[in-house]
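Input (FadR family transcriptional regulator):
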Amino acid sequence: MPEARSNLSRAQQVAAQVENELLAARTPVGTSLGRRTDLMDRFGISPTVCNEALRILRDRDLVVVRPGPGGGIFVANVPPQVRLGALDLWFSGAGTDPLELFEARAHLETTLTSVAVDRAGPKDVRDMEWALEEMRNASEPRAYLEANLRLHLAIARASRIPVLAGMYEALAAIITGSLTRAELLPGHDEMYAHNIAVHAEIVAAIRGGNRENLKKAMALHHQDLIRATDGSRSPGQAEPPHEA
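Output:
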């Protein structure tokens, strides 16, 4: 279990495990997960913990609980396939696991940004600043993600490594083309603002050609890629996030 989940309550742990199992098995909507007593027996939890775990799953729109004969716990929706900072993202089921796409994207961003800081010209920086302003003005989560991808594509192009920049552009196209749903996490405001501030620091470091500042900003950027409450479906989950 990732270190980032060690502070979760028992109910949160149970809800996260059920959610990850639904994702791994691609459990169809409407599938019965049994009754409350089945959940309690399986995880060795009390009725109070069971009710709280079900509340969490209902709040995420993942299960519905039906009373009476023929009732029980049923799958309401599929869980998010990637958690990216303040965003939960769902993708169409065909092709590569979206998590693998985001992991590849994260590695490309690290490499290309470290080169762009030495090679970016005024036009490159203007393109980054334009995309950054789009991130600030995004009115819904999909627009925010697309602006984020445009910012990093501008950085990729500034690296003057066409092959790798082309790979990044292809990854971004697959991500946006297969995205079916995007939602902000509850209480996202602070994380959202922090993420924008980190990207502003990255752009400022590239503008100034400051490698030391860029290194610090990219360390914060890596932390932002991981949803602190559950890193199991986030890029870079093999390296648990550290407290900022």
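The chain is about 60% helix and 10% strand.
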